[in-house]
Write a structure and sequence with these properties.
This protein has a 7-stranded mixed beta sheet. By secondary structure, the chain is α+β, with helices and mostly antiparallel strands. The radius of gyration is 34 Å and the shape is rod-shaped.
């Protein structure tokens, strides 16, 4: 397709058709949700900061209307619809475009992620999400508080708070991964199973994806702090520097967990080898015990004509007693040697 073609080919995670508009100032806040985007956009006041949130990238017509209203370049809108982008920052004439990956945990303790796109301009912030449900509810609650700093600052501060919340979500994900690693380590030492092996492989994939998401996010935030622009107030640059430090800490944690996951794989292989050795040891002991009595049975099973023990009255019970004594002696010997 030609560049700038606005068409969404990804998976539809939500049937939502509404767009959320939150207009706020220190004195007032208004929250409106509607599927009539043009009417919604026409109600925006230039005297208030506004946050427009669209959930469901299949609503291409809504995205086109928003782009037309705020004069957003069609290539930027195309990037919004392409959910395979790495996190990045782009500075345009009159607005800033930012992409990040947001992680959340499901009830099954699985990790879900989605791409969140931000467009930051003077007095407005637009966010585009793939799925319903996010980590921004605490921000919405803070906006209801008249004394909150969010109500007294501009849209670029709201942008910082949302990005910071996404980065905090990485901490929660890593904390969950750390708990899984500890649980797996205990399981592998006691009774390793194939399910543990699958869990280790899944952890490795999750950590790889986290790493691929955080590294470019760090670069994107660094670009925000280093390149001068009039969309981010100088006072808020300090806050983004703090988010940058958090990204570095998260990267260090990911590298640590990757090493631990590799160690878990080594532990799994060692545990499985030890488990097999235990089985082989038991089988070897049983085989060793039966070797002498098999020899005795073999000797007296040859049925030669001139074997005196064959005609002895007590030959059979004597042979059975000898076999039993051999078994008992060998078991006692193995116990003394602590071979089992």
């Amino acid at each position: 397709m030609p560049p700038g073609n606005l068409d969404y080919h990804g998976e539809v995670y939500s049937q939502n058709k509404d767009v959320e508009l939150i207009s706020y100032s220190q004195e007032n806040i208004k929250r409106v949700t509607s599927d009539d985007v043009k009417t919604l956009l026409s109600s925006i006041s230039t005297k208030e900061e506004c946050w427009i949130n669209l959930v469901g990238l299949h609503n291409v017509d809504h995205i086109k209307s928003i782009g037309s209203h705020f004069n957003i370049h069609h290539l930027v809108l195309e990037d919004v619809l392409n959910t395979d982008h790495r996190p990045k920052t782009e500075l345009h004439d009159g607005y800033l475009f930012f992409i990040a990956k947001m992680f959340t945990s499901s009830e099954e303790n699985n990790y879900q992620f989605e791409q969140v796109s931000f467009i930051v301009g003077k007095e407005y912030l637009i966010t585009f999400q793939e799925k319903e449900g996010d980590v921004f509810n605490t921000i919405r609650e803070r906006l209801n508080d008249k004394e909150s700093r969010l109500r007294t600052r501009k849209a670029d501060y709201l942008f910082y708070r949302l990005v910071d919340t996404i980065v905090d979500g990485y901490y929660y994900t890593l904390e969950s991964i750390g708990d899984k690693i500890e649980l797996l380590e205990d399981n592998l030492q006691e009774n390793p199973t194939k399910e543990d092996y699958k869990e280790i492989q899944q952890l490795k994939r999750d950590l790889i994806f986290l790493r691929k998401s955080v590294y470019p996010l760090r670069e994107a935030i660094a670009k925000l702090t280093k390149e001068s622009n009039n969309l981010i107030e100088q006072e808020n640059i300090t806050y983004f520097n703090d988010v940058y430090d958090h990204c570095i800490h998260i990267i260090d944690s990911i590298e640590t967990f990757r090493d631990l996951t590799s160690s878990l794989m080594d532990l799994y292989m060692t545990s499985m080898s030890n488990k097999m050795n235990e089985v082989m040891k038991v089988l070897t002991v049983i085989s060793t015990i039966f070797i002498p009595i098999t020899f005795v049975a073999g000797v007296y099973g040859m049925n030669f004509q001139y074997m005196p023990e064959l005609t002895h009255k007590w030959g059979y019970p004597i042979t059975m007693v000898v076999m039993a004594v051999l078994v008992i002696v060998m078991i006692v010997y193995f116990k003394v040697k602590k071979w089992f």
